[in-house]
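Please fill in the sequence for the structure shown.

STRUCTURE ENCODING:
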């Protein structure tokens, strides 16, 4: 996936960039597994067996996550970092609370557009002179 020139130029300027934790990435899959099981620590082999990622990528992925302070490693065991667990849990709790109060996000963009301060113009509207 290509990145912007600005993003390219910023690589290594401020140290290592944060890992991509999207659900479709190995890092995201391993991170979410450890986050969901924050009360346990796992051997690398157990993580490989529990998640659907290439076996050879789990070790390097764990090391990258550890470099960013997202996971901890002792002996042969890996777990989510306690501070990271607290932050992620607070974020999930905040999102759930907002959903309870506001009803969550809606896919009804048209209803939103009726009250939007700066409604988004469709491509057809933008092309008209």
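FILLED IN BY: designer on duty
SEQUENCE:
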């Amino acid at each position: 996936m290509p990145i912007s020139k600005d993003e390219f130029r910023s690589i290594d300027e401020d140290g290592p960039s944060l890992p991509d934790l999207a659900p479709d990435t190995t890092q995201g899959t391993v991170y979410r597994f450890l986050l969901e099981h924050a009360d346990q620590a796992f051997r690398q082999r157990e993580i490989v067996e529990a998640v659907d990622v290439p076996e050879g990528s789990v070790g390097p992925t764990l090391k990258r996550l550890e470099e960013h302070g997202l996971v901890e490693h002792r002996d042969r065991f890996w777990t989510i970092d306690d501070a990271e667990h607290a932050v992620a849990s607070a974020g999930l709790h905040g999102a759930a609370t907002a959903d309870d109060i506001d009803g969550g996000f809606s896919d009804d963009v048209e209803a939103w557009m009726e009250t939007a301060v700066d409604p988004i113009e469709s491509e057809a509207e933008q092309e008209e002179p």
